[in-house]
Design goal:
The chain is of the alpha+beta class. Among the domains are: 3-63 and 665-702; 68-88 and 154-295, no CATH class; 326-434, Immunoglobulin-like (Sandwich), CATH 2.60.40; 463-547, no CATH class. It has helices at residues 3-29, 66-96, 105-121, 126-187, 193-209, 284-320, 376-387, 428-432, 488-496, 543-547, 552-555, 565-569, 596-602, 624-664, 668-702; strands at 39-48, 51-62, 212-216, 222-226, 231-233, 237-241, 258-262, 269-275, 329-334, 348-354, 360-367, 391-396, 399-404, 410-415, 438-439, 463-470, 474-482, 504-508, 514-518, 526-532, 562-563, 609-611, 620-622. The protein has a 3-stranded antiparallel sheet. Strand 10 and strand 11 form a beta hairpin. It is elongated. It starts with a helix and ends with a helix.
Length: 703
């Protein structure tokens, strides 16, 4: 072996040992860096001809198990998804309060019944009437508060989506920049480990936001897709876009998360390449989308169902009873009906005028079955003729009103015992909201009582934009209905023959309720109306408002629930008595001490009510209190499930992190041992170099 060969071998050993020491010291320095994968130097023999020519570094590789890395990223996405849901559920629990306390949803409902029980004992007490009204208002405020806060949480989820999408775009851009740098270093034979570590850290952070899958290209780059296969970073990068709406209400139509290809030269984003929402399966984005579009709307719908039943049942009883003395006038809500619409009432109702002492001045008993094909105008004619000029029943632009012509007289509308009036299950006074105790932002029911063959009544040319969508803001189908034809059946045929009809069937129930039924295979779809210029005659009531079509009508029955202003201002208008139907003209029909109405309102506490399926609750027969408890129980179950799922996914993540650390983690003992080995190898190589120098010196002395 020549001296030059010795020098060559020793130098290769020195350089290789230095690289090993650098690698080991880098590992030691990052022992506490989360997610860091230790690096390992690979060595190989330098071959010169047929002989060994020293040693060289063949590469510095990150020590990882690709399967474990992918599994850990998937577990990270799941854990972060449920962590988001748990965070929101924790805040909901604070809003709901303790179910055993008086300030909770159930506690305030119990307080209503307690106050009614007191008022039933002494119905003439103004103080007890006032406290009863306050109890109704307090419960309404609780319903309104919960519904508003749920919408606020949806708005916060939307804002967090916006922030996370910006972060995801930043991470994708960073990975895109690192890819060519890593490829360049590998082509040049340099150590790319530090750059690969940065890329791995960025991928790990991205997996917290959205579920991803990665694949290596032939030149060492990384492609990133969602786990469902949507390309996020390949030959070009996609930019995610989402514009969070400023204010969120039940009717907010959230924009979808869209994908836009980024020009690699100019950096400009192009047109949308599609929607991403339905392709997000886990990660914080999935948790936020589920909260915004599924879980929180379900909760709002359950409270809306509770509120609509509460308002409707209370008003049904209040309309069936009467105040003493009777009010001079009763004015209903805008029903959206027209004077020439068929009345569609069955049974009988009493329309009476009473004096200040509760004596009957005049009365007319209307048998609706006697003119089944009659219009609302026919009803007005019959009542006004029977009252003999003592009172006037009128109907203007959808609003029914009943007024005593003498300012000292009062009016009463009562149900006939044994054969009460009914349109879609509601008495005449109840249907038109003549003597309601409670009001809310939207009607408590949308059983309109109209039939397929009835004139639809909407002004021709008006338009309404119907949208079928899925959670995540993804639009399935969209159609702008233009009012035409004459009947309700014409409108339904138009919708069923439109693009919407591919996914759903539109119909009217026997009670005139608009129904959208998804077709088989349509999946989880909902119907919303995003713009509506229609009007039913001169009432100003649009088709979406008339039939309750759209997201707002699921939850907004719980908004602004309060006692009617005229009753709040004068507690004497609280209908705690009952009209005596046996009384004829000149006889007493109302008395100050009558408690029948108060007892009927109080008995609502034990009445079984048929609740339709709503949110996460199935249809059921229950009392108001039982349904409120079911709502709270469903909230609790959802919260518990979120906690359990987060715990389970976190446990899996911890296990995978531990296993990954066993392979990729830095062990100080091993690194220090390697450092000793590299130091010794360095010393040995240096010793060889010294020997070579001594040999040259000896030869020179001989010469």
């Amino acid at each position: 072996m020549s001296i030059n060969t010795i020098i060559s071998h020793s130098l290769s050993g020195l350089f290789t040992s230095q690289a090993g020491l650098r690698t080991t010291s880098n590992n030691v320095a990052n022992v506490n860096t989360p997610g860091y994968a230790r690096q390992e130097m690979q060595q190989e023999v330098i071959v010169s001809g047929t002989k060994a020519g020293g040693v060289k570094v063949s590469g510095i590789n990150r020590v990882i198990d690709e399967f474990l890395v992918d599994a850990k990223r998937a577990a990270t996405s799941e854990a972060d998804r449920y962590a988001v849901e748990r965070e929101f559920h924790n805040r909901l629990e604070i809003l709901l309060g303790n179910p055993t306390e008086n300030d909770s949803l159930g506690g305030k409902l119990d307080n209503v019944y307690r106050e009614l029980a007191e008022a039933a004992i002494t119905p003439s007490s103004t103080t007890l009437r006032t406290t009863t009204i306050s109890a109704y208002d307090e419960y309404g405020k609780e319903l309104d508060y919960l519904t508003r806060e749920i919408q606020n949480l949806r708005g916060e989820a939307s804002n967090q989506l916006d922030e996370l999408i910006d972060k995801a775009n930043t991470l994708l851009e960073r990975i895109e920049r690192l890819n060519p740098l890593i490829i360049q270093q590998q082509v040049m034979g340099n150590d790319a480990g530090a750059l690969e570590e940065q890329r791995a850290q960025a991928l790990g952070q991205l997996s917290e936001i959205i579920d991803i899958s990665t694949s290596k290209t032939s030149n060492g780059g990384i492609q990133v897709t969602t786990s469902s296969g949507v390309m996020l970073l390949g030959t070009t990068r996609m930019e995610l876009q989402y514009n969070a709406p400023g204010t969120v209400t039940a009717e907010t139509n959230f924009p979808p998360i869209t994908l836009h290809e980024v020009d690699p030269i100019s950096g400009e984003t192009g047109l949308s390449r599609g929607e991403l929402g339905g392709n997000i399966l886990s990660g914080r984005l999935k948790g936020l989308l589920d909260m915004r579009d599924v879980i929180l709307p379900d909760m709002a719908a359950e409270i809306g169902t509770l509120a609509s039943a509460y308002v409707d049942q209370v008003n049904a009883i209040h309309n069936a009873n009467a105040a003493y003395p009777g009010p001079n006038s009763l004015v209903g809500d805008n029903s959206g009906l027209l004077a020439n619409d068929l009345h569609h009432f069955t049974g009988e109702a009493v329309f009476a005028i009473t004096d200040s002492q509760g004596n009957v001045v005049s009365r007319v008993d209307v048998d609706f079955d006697s003119f089944p094909g009659g219009t609302i105008n026919d009803v007005l004619t019959t009542v006004n003729a029977g009252l003999g000029g003592n009172g006037t029943l009128s109907f203007v632009d959808g609003v029914m009103s009943f007024t005593a012509n003498n300012a000292t007289h009062g009016v009463v509308i009562a149900q006939t015992d044994g054969d009460p009036s009914s349109r879609s299950g509601r008495g005449f006074s109840h249907f038109f909201g003549m003597n309601d105790l409670l009001t809310s932002r939207v009607p408590a029911h949308f059983e309109t009582g109209v039939q397929l063959g009835d004139n639809h009544g909407f002004t021709p040319g008006g338009t309404a934009n119907f949208v079928l969508g899925r959670p995540g803001g993804n639009t399935v189908a969209e159609y702008t209905l233009t009012i035409a034809g004459t009947s309700n059946n014409d409108i339904l045929n138009d919708l069923n023959s439109s693009p919407l009809g591919t996914y759903a069937v539109f119909s009217l129930s026997a009670n005139g309720e608009f129904i959208m039924t998804p077709k088989a295979g349509a999946g989880d779809i909902s119907l919303n109306v995003t713009a509506d210029t229609t009007s039913r005659g001169a009432t100003g009531i649009s088709i979406s408002r008339f039939f309750g079509i759209g997201h707002r009508y699921d939850s907004d029955p719980a908004r602004d629930v309060r006692v009617e202003s005229r009753i709040r201002e004068d507690a004497a208008y609280l209908a705690l008595g009952k009209f005596d139907q046996t009384a004829v003209v000149g006889q007493s029909a109302l008395s100050v001490g009558d408690q029948a109405g108060a007892v009927a309102l109080q008995q609502l506490e034990t009445r079984q009510i048929a609740f339709e399926a709503s949110g996460g609750l199935t249809s059921m027969n229950a009392t108001m209190g039982q349904y409120a408890s079911s709502v709270l129980a469903d909230f609790g179950l959802r919260s518990s499930a979120a906690h359990d799922l987060e715990s389970d996914s976190s446990a899996l993540l911890d296990e995978l992190t531990t296993r990954n650390a066993d392979i990729s983690g830095v062990n100080l003992d091993e690194e220090l041992s390697d450092m000793v080995i590299y130091q010794q190898a360095y010393n040995a190589s240096a010793r060889l170099l010294t020997v070579a120098q001594e040999l040259y010196d000896a030869l020179l002395r001989v010469v």
